[in-house]
Amino acid sequence: MADRSLSRARRVWRYLKPLADMLLIFFSFVIAYWLRYELQWIRQVEPAYLVPFDVYLPSVVALMGILVIVYWIEGAYRPARGRTLFDELWIVLRGTLIGIAAMIVIVFLVTPSYYSRLIFGYAGFVIFTLLSLSRTIERAIAVRLRRRGVGVRRVLLVGSGEVARSVMRAVVARPELGYQIVGFVDDEPESLGNIGRYPALGSTARLPEILRGQTVDEVIIALPWVSSQKIAAIAQQCEREGVRANIVPDLFQMTLSRVAVDNLDGIPLLSVREPSLRDWQVVFKRVMDVVVAGLGLILLSPVLLLTALAIRLDSPGPIIFRQTRVGRGGQEFTCFKFRTMCVDAEQRLEELRPHNEANGPWFKMRNDPRRTRVGRFLRRTSLDELPQLWNVLKGEMSLIGPRPNLPSEVQAYEPWHYRRLEIAPGITGLWQVSGRSELTFDEMVLLDVYYIENWSPILDLHILLKTIPTVILGSGAY
């Protein structure tokens, strides 16, 4: 009942959204009129040229119609589940520029002696600002509802190979898309184990039984291209059960981030490259690491000194904890952290192993008795990570990247886990801002590989901004 009500509300909003945009455009023109004639920004208005607002009403009505049509052509009113906020804002910006330009041409062709040209510049700026704000609020409401399970699409995956894991990576990294994977089916013997919290539900022969016995909104078929007949048969099964089937196009397991295009005398050639950072990306990322880490060590030096003093007064032992970790390409390095545990913590690990709360090769315990009083605070606030800025300066780590694992954890890797070693580990990363210790090990690896495949300066900035509230709130830290 709730899902049907939500679906009905979505359909109603699809028709109301253009009307809401028209009201915002009208309100934006009112603000533009106020800026132009009341505040008189940029250029003063001669008294003889002061005109009442109703003179502009025909232009406002025309502008509302033109902009809504342009937004519709640009795709602003199509379902936006797969679009990012940047995509939404880009559509609004592009549509506003096109619409305002078209309006200016029409007005000055019809009425060359129009009252004010500058008012359209004001209007365009205000329209973009208000519509961007409305899109941001709309998306924030949708994300909040989806995090509570409202409007979430329950998805069954067919397949467990690299193609299927790329779907899992996107779902884990972008929960705002509103997909929940209920599990996966596959006919490969090696796929019998769960992947993180995604359960293996058996072979594809169980698909009709699963579709009847569980609530599944969509099926995503992520099988290799050689299984074309099986893909067609599964799609037909889904159609018979009344469940929508989506097929991930797989040409030698290529994604757009892995395709390089060349030509041979006009003949297009497609080649596959491993998704790793390019030369300019490596240089850019390294420059940012050095600048930020250097400034961080200087500006945070009082915090570093106070933390060191607190550790010294709280318990016996060294201030800095040194531990061997595995970095890029499997190279081992010494990782520096503020000591948060008693000096015999490593020796007591085996006796605590039965109490491990983590999934996978790593050890996590919410109420670890080895932690000191100061250590509990440092872990909760992530201040224990600050000495790793020195590792960043040395080039052994990056500000943002995969979590640096212990050699013993790397030895327990499954083959697909090794891809996280393609770049330098980071002090923070998608794994930290997406749940930290609450994640399973497989989910952490899925996030790390997603980061490698989709790296950009914008993504790094997004992670840095999300790290701040994560650290302040202590989300998932123990």
Termini Cα gap:
40 Å
Structural class: alpha/beta
Rg estimate, integer Å: 28 Å
Report the helical percentage: 40-55%
Q: Report the average pLDDT across residues.
A: 81
Broad shape: globular
Strand content: 5-15%
Kindly report the oligomeric state of this protein.
single chain
Strand order of the largest sheet: 2-1-3-4
Task: Quickly count the helices.
Answer: 16
Low-confidence stretches: none
- Tell me the total number of β-strands: 10
What characterizes the major β-sheet? 4 strands, parallel
Q: Any overview of this molecule?
A:
This protein has 478 residues and is α/β, with parallel strands linked by helices. It has 16 helices and 10 strands. The strands form 4 sheets. It has a 4-stranded parallel beta sheet with strand order 2-1-3-4, with helices on both faces. Strands 5-6 form a two-stranded antiparallel sheet. The longest helix is centred in the first third of the chain and has 38 residues.
Brief sketch in words of this structure:
With 478 residues, the chain is α/β, with parallel strands linked by helices. The protein has helices spanning 2-39, 57-74, 85-110, 118-147, 162-173, 207-213, 228-240, 279-299, 301-314, 349-352, 373-381, 388-394, 407-411, 430-433, 441-453, 457-473, and strands at 153-158, 179-185, 218-221, 244-247, 259-264, 267-272, 320-326, 332-338, 398-400, 426-428.
